[in-house]
TrEMBL record:
It is found in: Cell membrane. Keywords: ATP-binding, Cell membrane, Hydrolase, Kinase, Membrane, Nucleotide-binding, Phosphoprotein, Transferase, Transmembrane, Transmembrane helix, Two-component regulatory system. The keyword Phosphoprotein applies. The chain crosses the membrane at residues 12-34, 169-190. Gene3D superfamilies: 3.30.450.40, Histidine kinase-like ATPase, C-terminal domain, PAS domain, PPM-type phosphatase domain. This is SpoIIE family protein phosphatase/ATP-binding protein. InterPro entries: Bact_Sigma-Reg, GAF, GAF-like_dom_sf, HATPase_C_sf, HATPase_dom, PAS, PAS-like_dom_sf, PPM-type-like_dom_sf. CDD domains: HATPase_RsbW-like, PAS. It is a multi-pass membrane protein.
C-alpha cells in the first residue's frame, strides 16, 4: 500500500499529504494568531499602564519638583513589576528619561516617537529600543489647563511577547500530532479497503482493465445481466439488450418494470440458481444461466448469462456436419488401403461412405487396373465394388462389365476428369440414355441424386466412383460433391498403389516361378519332398535345388536372400544359376561356398557403382552332398540355419555344422562337416522363415521344429505336412523353403571295384572282369562300349597318372564307370590329326558315354563316364 503503485497506495499518499498540509497550515495559523494576539495584548497592556501612570495622582507635581527621578523612579518600578511590563519610563517634553529599569539610562534621550504625544495624542509602536525589540505606548501628562508637561511610556519587549506564544506552541503541536495520527489512521483504513476492492492495481491498469472488460462484455455473443439484491438492473451488455429487448434506460430500474416477459423477469428478480433454463422471448428460445454474486463475500445480487439456443442449434448443426466430414476424411486416411489388393481397396471406399455419406456407392475400374496394368480408355469397366443400405437396388451388380456412353455422368467424368453432380436423376436425360429400362427401375426404387467422381492417380484415370442417394430427400449439393472428390482422391492413391503392387507382385511371382525348380531331377540316392510358401508381403529370395552329381551322388542346396520383391527374386536366380555351374565342377561344399562368396562380393562391387542398385545383403546358403555308396554326407553352410537329422529310430538332432559367415562378407573360410547317415534317415533343410518370426526366436523355433519332426511319419511328404501344419497356422512375413530328403543306399551287389596294378597288361584283366560283372547284371549290351571306355581310362591312368589305381563300376539309373589314380593331373580332350599316333582315347570316351568328367579328391582324382541303361 505504501509503494504508491496501486490506487489504494496513491489514495493513501494523497490523504497523508493533505493531512500534513492541513496540520502545517493549522500550526502556522495558530502560531501567527498567538503572536498577533500577544502583540495586541502587549499594545493594550502597555497603553493601559502608560495611561494609568500618566493619570495617577501627583504625577504633575512630581514632574514639577526639583528631582523628578527621586520621586517617580520608585513608583515606576513598582508599577512595572505589578503590571508585568518591561519598563515604565517618565519623560519630560524634551524626551529625557526621568525613570528606567536600568538606572544608567536615566537622563538619556528616549528612543521612540514622541511628537504625537506632545500634541496630546497617544502613540503605540513597535521599535528596536535600548532593551531590544519591543512594543511601547507613549501618552501625554497634562496639567489642569490641558498643557502637556511630560510623557509616560510603558512597553513590553518582543522576547517577552514571543515567550507567551512559545509557551502555547507545545500544546498546539501536540494537538496537531494527534490530529495527524487520527487522519493517517482513517486514510489507512480507507486505503486498505480500497486495496482489497482494486486488488492492488494501479490507475493505468484499472483504466485498461475497465476498457478491456467493457470491450469484452459488449463483444461476446452471450448476454450478461447483473442485478443487485433489490432486483435492480445494474448492468446489461449489448447482446443482452438485443436478446431480451431491454430499453435504453433499463439500467437502474427494477427488472419487473422494464418490460421483460414474466418468466424471465421473475427469474432475474428472484436471484435463484438456474442452469440452461429455457425461456421463450419473442421468437427466440433463450437458455439462461444464473448464479448469485455473494458466494465469495461479494455484494448481494446475481449475474445471469443468456444464449440464443435457436442460433446455437443452427451453428451446432453445421459444426456437427463439419466434424462428421473431418472424421470421415480421417477414417478414409486410415481405413482405405489397408491391403495391397485393388478389389479390397475399392470395397473399403464403398463401405466407408455407406451410410455416412451416401445410400449406395459403386466403384467401376478399367479391367487392366485389376490385373495391375495401365488403364485403357478403350476398354470396358468392371464393377469392382458395390455397397448399399439394402441389397436389392437395381444397379449393375459386382463383376458386371460396363461401357458408359458419353452423355452419362460417369462417361463425362471419365472424359473430363472432373466430378459431376446430378441433383435430380429423373431430370437427367443423359443418365437415362445409358440404360432406359434399368434407369427407370433405379428412379422407381427411390434413388434420386448422384455424384460421379473419376478415380485419378496423377495423369491416369483408373475408373469412376458413383455416390447414390435415396433415403435423404434433399439432393446432393456442391459441398457434398467437394467431400466426395476428397474421399475419392484419397482412395485413388491407395488403389494406384495396390495396382502397382499387383503388377510388381505378378512380375516377381513369374520371375520366381521361372527360377525355382519346377520338377526334381531323377535320381535314386534320395527320396525327396519339398514345400515353398511365399511370404504374405510378396515373393522373396528363398530357394532350394536338387543337383545330381557324378558317382550317383546328389547335392542338396537351400538358400535365402533377405528382402522381398523383384530384386530379391532376381538375386536368388543369379545365386541358383551360380550353384548349378559350380556344382558341375564336383567341388567339396566348402570350396563351392567359397566360390559363391567371391561371386557375391563381385556382384556387390558392381552394384555399388550403380546409383540406384542395391547390393546383395543377407544372402545365406547351405550345401550338402550325399553319396549313396558310402552313405556319407558332406555339409557346409554360409550363415544359414543348421540342418535337422531324423534317425531311422525317430530321434531328432541338429548336427554340429560349422556356421560360416553370410555370402559376400569374405574374410573367413568355410568348413565342411561329414555325416554318416544310415539308410532311411531324413535330412531336413529349411530357411529361417520356418524357425524364426516376430513371435518366436530361433532357439524356440528349433525346439518347435524338433517336436514336429519327432511325431512326423517316415515319408518326406508326411514330414513336410506335419512341420508346416505345426509351425504355420497362417501366412507369415517371410518366405519358407523346406526340403526333406530320406536317404537310400546303393546295394552292395550293384557295386563292383577292382585294384589295378600299374602294368599295361592289367588292362585286359579289367576288361574281362567288367564283362563278367555286366553279364551278371544282365547288361551284355553295354559290354563292348564299357570295355572300350575302361580300356582308354585305365590306360591313361597307367601312362599319365600315379599309383594306386582303382576301377569302380556302379549299377544305378545309369551305368557309371570310375577310374581312380593318385595323380592330380587333369586329362584334356583334344582332336588328333591323321598323323598322330595317340590322343584319341578321351575323344572316343566322350563319343561313347552320355556324360564324363573329372572329380578331384584330396589324394588324387577320379575320371568317370556314364552310360544310359538299355530299355526293357
Amino acid at each position: 500500500m505504501l509503494s504508491g503503485r496501486s490506487v489504494a497506495g496513491q489514495v493513501f499518499v494523497l490523504h497523508l499529504v493533505i493531512v500534513l498540509l492541513l496540520v502545517v497550515a493549522a500550526v502556522v495559523a495558530l502560531v501567527l494568531q498567538v503572536r498577533r494576539d500577544s502583540t495586541q495584548e502587549a499594545r493594550n497592556r502597555s497603553l493601559a499602564v502608560a495611561e494609568t501612570f500618566a493619570n495617577s495622582p501627583g504625577i504633575v507635581e512630581a514632574l514639577g519638583s526639583p528631582d523628578p527621578t527621586a520621586v517617580l523612579q520608585p513608583h515606576a518600578e513598582a508599577v512595572r513589576e505589578r503590571a508585568d511590563v518591561d519598563f515604565v519610563v517618565v519623560l519630560n517634553t524634551d524626551g529625557i528619561r526621568y525613570t528606567h529599569p536600568r538606572p544608567d539610562r536615566i537622563g538619556k534621550q528616549f528612543v521612540g516617537t514622541i511628537e504625537p504625544a506632545l500634541a496630546g495624542e497617544q502613540v503605540v509602536e513597535e521599535i528596536d529600543g535600548t532593551i531590544g525589540e519591543l512594543v511601547q505606548a507613549v501618552v501625554p501628562v497634562e496639567d489642569a489647563d490641558g498643557t502637556v508637561v511630560g510623557l509616560v511610556s510603558a512597553g513590553i519587549t518582543t522576547e517577552h511577547v514571543g515567550g507567551a506564544a512559545e509557551n502555547q506552541l507545545p500544546l498546539v503541536l501536540g494537538a496537531a500530532a494527534v490530529a495527524l495520527a487520527l487522519a493517517t489512521g482513517g486514510a489507512a483504513l480507507v486505503s486498505r479497503r480500497l486495496l482489497r476492492q482494486t486488488h492492488g492495481l494501479g490507475p493505468h491498469e484499472m483504466t485498461r482493465m475497465y476498457e478491456h472488460h467493457d470491450a469484452v462484455l459488449h463483444a461476446v455473443r452471450e448476454g450478461v445481466v447483473i442485478v443487485d439484491g433489490d432486483g435492480t438492473l445494474m448492468l446489461a451488455n449489448d447482446e443482452a439488450h438485443r436478446l431480451l429487448g431491454l430499453p435504453e434506460d433499463g439500467e437502474g430500474r427494477h427488472v419487473l418494470d422494464i418490460g421483460l416477459d414474466p418468466g424471465t423477469a421473475e427469474l432475474l428478480s428472484s436471484g435463484r440458481v438456474a442452469t440452461d433454463e429455457v425461456h421463450l422471448v419473442g421468437d427466440r428460445l433463450l437458455a439462461v444461466n444464473q448464479r448469485p454474486t455473494d458466494r465469495a463475500g461479494g455484494p448481494p445480487g446475481s449475474v445471469a448469462t443468456v444464449r440464443d439456443s435457436t442460433e446455437l442449434r443452427a451453428l451446432s448443426g453445421r459444426a456437427e456436419a463439419a466434424r462428421e466430414r473431418l472424421n470421415m476424411l480421417y477414417d478414409a486416411g486410415v481405413g482405405i488401403g489397408t491391403s495391397l489388393d485393388v478389389t479390397r481397396t475399392a470395397e473399403e471406399l464403398a463401405e466407408l461412405a455407406v451410410p455416412r455419406f451416401a445410400d449406395f456407392v459403386t466403384v467401376d475400374l478399367f479391367e487392366p487396373v485389376l490385373a495391375g496394368g495401365h488403364p485403357d480408355a478403350a476398354t470396358v469397366l468392371r464393377r469392382t465394388a458395390m455397397t448399399g443400405i439394402r441389397k436389392d437396388a437395381p444397379l449393375y451388380p459386382v463383376n458386371e462389365t460396363i461401357r458408359f456412353i458419353g452423355s452419362s455422368p460417369q462417361g463425362r467424368s471419365l472424359a473430363t476428369g472432373r466430378a459431376l453432380l446430378e441433383p435430380r436423376l429423373s431430370d437427367a436425360p443423359g443418365w437415362r440414355a445409358q440404360d432406359l429400362e434399368r434407369s427407370g427401375q433405379v428412379v422407381d426404387y427411390g434413388i434420386h441424386s448422384l455424384i460421379t467422381v473419376p478415380l485419378r492417380a496423377g495423369a491416369l484415370v483408373l475408373g469412376v466412383v458413383s455416390f447414390w442417394r435415396s433415403e435423404k430427400p434433399e439432393p446432393f449439393d456442391a459441398e457434398e460433391r467437394a467431400l466426395a472428390e476428397e474421399l475419392v482422391a484419397r482412395a485413388a492413391v491407395s488403389i494406384d498403389n495396390a495396382r502397382r503392387y499387383t503388377r510388381e507382385h505378378s512380375m516377381a511371382v513369374t520371375l520366381q516361378r521361372s527360377l525355382l525348380p519346377r520338377t526334381l531331377p531323377e535320381q535314386t540316392a534320395l527320396e525327396i519332398a519339398y514345400r515353398y510358401l511365399p511370404a504374405q508381403a510378396g515373393v522373396g529370395g528363398d530357394w532350394f535345388d536338387v543337383l545330381p552329381l557324378s558317382g550317383a551322388r546328389v547335392a542338396l542346396v537351400v538358400g535365402d536372400v533377405v528382402g522381398h520383391g523383384l530384386h530379391a527374386a532376381a538375386t536368388m536366380g543369379r545365386l541358383r544359376t551360380a550353384v548349378h555351374n559350380f556344382s558341375a565342377l564336383d567341388l567339396p561344399p566348402d570350396e563351392l561356398l567359397a566360390l559363391l562368396d567371391e561371386m557375391v562380393a563381385r556382384i556387390d562391387q558392381d552394384e555399388a557403382q550403380e546409383e540406384h542398385s542395391a547390393p546383395v545383403t543377407g544372402a545365406t546358403c547351405l550345401y550338402a552332398v550325399y553319396d549313396p555308396v558310402s552313405r556319407h554326407c558332406a555339409v557346409a553352410r554360409a550363415g544359414h540355419p543348421p540342418p535337422a537329422l531324423v534317425r531311422p529310430d525317430g530321434g531328432v538332432e541338429f548336427p554340429d555344422v560349422p556356421a560360416g559367415p553370410p555370402l559376400g562378407l569374405g574374410g573367413l573360410p568355410f568348413e565342411t562337416a561329414g555325416l554318416e547317415l544310415p539308410e532311411g534317415s531324413r535330412l531336413v533343410l529349411y530357411t529361417d522363415g520356418l524357425v524364426e518370426d516376430r513371435r518366436h526366436d530361433i532357439d524356440e523355433g528349433l525346439e518347435l521344429l524338433r517336436e514336429a519332426l519327432s511325431r512326423a511319419g517316415d515319408s518326406p511328404e508326411d514330414t513336410c505336412r506335419v512341420v508346416l501344419e505345426s509351425r504355420r497356422p497362417g501366412r507369415a512375413g517371410d518366405d519358407i523353403a523346406l526340403l526333406v530328403a530320406r536317404t537310400r543306399a546303393l546295394a552292395a551287389d550293384r557295386i563292383a571295384q577292382w585294384p589295378v596294378p600299374a602294368d599295361p597288361a592289367a588292362v585286359g584283366e579289367v576288361r574281362a572282369a567288367v564283362a563278367r560283372k555286366l553279364a551278371e547284371w544282365r547288361l551284355d549290351e553295354l559290354a563292348f562300349t564299357t570295355e572300350l571306355i575302361l580300356s582308354e581310362l585305365v590306360t591313361n591312368a597307367i601312362r599319365h597318372g600315379g599309383a594306386p589305381i582303382r576301377v569302380r563300376v556302379l549299377h544305378d539309373r545309369n551305368l557309371i564307370c570310375e577310374v581312380y589314380d593318385g595323380s592330380s593331373t587333369s586329362p584334356h580332350l583334344r582332336y588328333a590329326t591323321m598323323t598322330d599316333e595317340g590322343g584319341r582315347g578321351l575323344f572316343l570316351v566322350a563319343q561313347l558315354a552320355e556324360r564324363w568328367g573329372t572329380r578331384y579328391l584330396p589324394t588324387g582324382k577320379v575320371i568317370w563316364a556314364e552310360q544310359p541303361l538299355p530299355g526293357p
